[in-house]
């Protein structure tokens, strides 16, 4: 235990190996969050639709995505995108598309629960006022669903941030890869992995504390 | 695009005296053993930690909370690397431990934090009167837990534990990172060797789905058998 040597951990190393990976992890998380919530909302509306031809494909998509390990989904997209488009795509771009498509399934379950949590009277009142389906959803239902589910959506985003480390499978350069490369270059893998764990812990722990506070705040207003 | 199925790929020899089909089956076995062993670790640890978080002793509660926060806020892949690279460096006795066991511990500890959260919620969902009644009958606190609270709480948490059991199958795929010969590792290597990625991935994905569905049905059976009579779920 006594031979931990952190002297290799300098500002030079941070800027050389870690910043690039960190920025990619953040970018991947943000893009997949925004894209995933948007697509997820569309999927949730499809699943709740009374048209079977809309509800059924959405249900199949969501349930399939949710029963396959994320690593396999990452590998699938990495294999299929070049196969279908005929052009190779970098690991980073492949990861962005994969995470958006994959997270959409999880966000859609959250949004579905959120939409179902809005009281039926709200929908009825909207229709009685003469709003169309689109207006009703956009102005009445979705804002309430979104607000009720905000803490859960953010918790899912923290899980998403943790899961971005799995792009390791296709060799994309993320935060973990940055630490690993630094550890290899300085022949200090033990310290590098330990620091990686600490950095991930600090980020996720502080974010989840913020979500907890937010949850308490929302609960009081309601 | 002219794609042709080539399922015969599974009858090809891997070069090591077995076919890809045999390798696939042994990989499935590894996935099941990693998940099953990690599941036992997670269930035992998670139950203990979850119970500690509901005891009246504030230090035990803090210990339980710290456990959950520690194992929930580090990505599983990073935790596997910690067990694989960092822990053996700190405790040299662990250097000769096979990576299978390290992955089982990593996945087990990671999942234990989620199980602990479910068990805590299960115990806290019981009415306060149950605990008071147990103590008023003259049972000690451990007796109250064993005979009154836990038998009820465990039945309540079966549905969330079912989804954790399905998660553990999915999460066992991360073991590829330390070269445990499970399904995802097989998928990556067989794809590289045969260039028949679509067939290989389809087979592996199918096995993952079959496994998850089996667990789902099995747990539904258990849930039905241990229902508490008199509750909404227990009415027949």
Short description:
The complex is a heterodimer of chains A (222) and B (236). Chain A is mainly alpha-helical and 222 residues long. Chain A is 82% helix and 0% strand.
Please explain how this structure is put together:
The complex is a heterodimer of chains A (222) and B (236). Chain A is mainly alpha-helical. Chain A is built from 8 helices and no strands. Chain A has one domain (11-221): Orthogonal Bundle (MetI-like fold). Chain A has helices at 11-48, 52-67, 70-85, 91-117, 120-128, 133-163, 175-185, 189-221. In chain A, helix 2 crosses helix 4 (91-117) and helix 4 (91-117) packs across helix 6. The radius of gyration of chain A is 21 Å and the shape is globular. The relative contact order of chain A is 0.14. Helix content of chain B is 72%, strand content 0%. Chain A binds chain B through residues 1, 64, 67-72, 75-76, 79-80, 83-84, 86, 162-163, 165-166, 168-169, 176, 189-190, 193-194, 196-197, 200-201, 204-205, 208, and chain B through 1, 69-70, 72-79, 81-82, 85-86, 89-90, 166, 169-174, 176-177, 184, 187-188, 191, 197-198, 201, 204-205, 208-209, 212-213.
List its salient traits.
heterodimer; A: 222 residues; MetI-like fold; 8 helices; 82% helix; 0% strand; B: 236 residues; mainly alpha; 9 helices; 72% helix
Low-confidence stretches of chain B: none
Q: Pairing-aware structural class of the strands and helices of chain B?
A: mainly alpha
The pLDDT mean of chain B sits at 90
Radius of gyration of chain A: 21 Å
Ends distance of chain B:
56 Å
Sketch the major β-sheet of chain A.
none
Do you know the CATH topology of chain A? MetI-like fold
Report strand % of chain A: under 5%
Amount of helix of chain B: over 70%
Total discrete domains of chain A:
1
CATH class of chain B: Mainly Alpha
Strand composition percent of chain B: under 5%
Order of helices and strands of chain B: HHHHHHHHH
CATH superfamily of chain B: MetI-like
Order of helices and strands of chain A: HHHHHHHH
Major beta sheet summary of chain B: none
The number of distinct structural domains of chain B comes to 1
């Amino acid at each position: 235990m006594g031979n931990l040597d952190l002297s290799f951990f300098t500002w030079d190393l941070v800027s050389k190996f870690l910043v690039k990976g960190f920025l990619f992890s953040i970018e991947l998380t943000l893009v997949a969050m925004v894209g995933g919530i948007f697509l997820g909302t569309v999927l949730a509306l499809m699943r709740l639709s009374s048209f079977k031809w809309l509800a059924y494909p959405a249900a199949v998509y969501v349930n399939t995505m949710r029963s396959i390990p994320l690593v396999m989904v990452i590998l699938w997209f990495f294999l299929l995108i070049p196969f279908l488009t005929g052009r190779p795509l970098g690991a980073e771009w492949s990861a962005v598309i994969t995470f958006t498509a994959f997270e959409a399934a999880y966000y859609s379950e959250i949004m579905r629960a959120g939409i179902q949590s809005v009281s039926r009277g709200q929908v009825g009142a909207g229709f009685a006022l003469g709003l169309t389906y689109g207006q009703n959803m956009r102005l009445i239902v979705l804002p309430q669903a979104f607000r009720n589910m905000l803490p859960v959506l953010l918790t899912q985003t923290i899980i998403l941030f943790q899961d971005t480390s799995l792009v390791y499978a296709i060799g994309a350069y993320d935060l973990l890869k940055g630490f690993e490369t630094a550890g290899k270059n300085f022949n200090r893998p033990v310290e590098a992995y330990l620091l990686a764990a600490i950095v991930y812990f600090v980020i996720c722990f502080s974010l989840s504390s913020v979500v907890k506070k937010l949850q308490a705040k929302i609960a009081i207003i309601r | 695009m002219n794609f042709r199925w080539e399922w015969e790929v599974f009858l090809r020899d891997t070069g090591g005296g077995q076919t890809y089909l045999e390798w696939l089956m042994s990989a499935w076995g590894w996935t099941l053993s990693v998940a099953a062993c990690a599941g036992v670790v997670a269930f035992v640890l998670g139950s203990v930690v979850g119970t500690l978080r509901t005891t009246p002793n504030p230090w035990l509660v803090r210990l339980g909370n710290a456990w959950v926060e520690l194992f929930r806020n580090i990505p599983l892949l990073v935790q596997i690397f910690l067990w694989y690279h960092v822990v053996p460096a700190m405790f040299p006795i662990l250097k000769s431990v096979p990576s299978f066991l390290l992955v089982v511990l990593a996945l087990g500890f990671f999942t234990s934090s989620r199980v602990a959260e479910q068990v805590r919620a299960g115990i806290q969902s019981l009415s306060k009167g149950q605990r008071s009644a147990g103590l008023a009958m003259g049972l000690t606190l451990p007796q109250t837990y064993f005979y009154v609270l836990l038998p009820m709480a465990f039945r309540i948490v079966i549905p969330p534990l079912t989804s954790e059991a399905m998660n553990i199958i999915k999460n066992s795929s991360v073991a590829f990172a330390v070269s445990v010969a499970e399904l995802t590792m097989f998928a990556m290597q067989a794809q590289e060797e045969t260039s028949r990625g679509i067939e290989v991935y389809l087979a592996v994905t199918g096995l993952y789905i079959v496994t998850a569905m089996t667990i789902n049905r099995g747990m539904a059976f258990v849930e039905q058998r241990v229902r508490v009579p008199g509750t909404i779920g227990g009415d027949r």
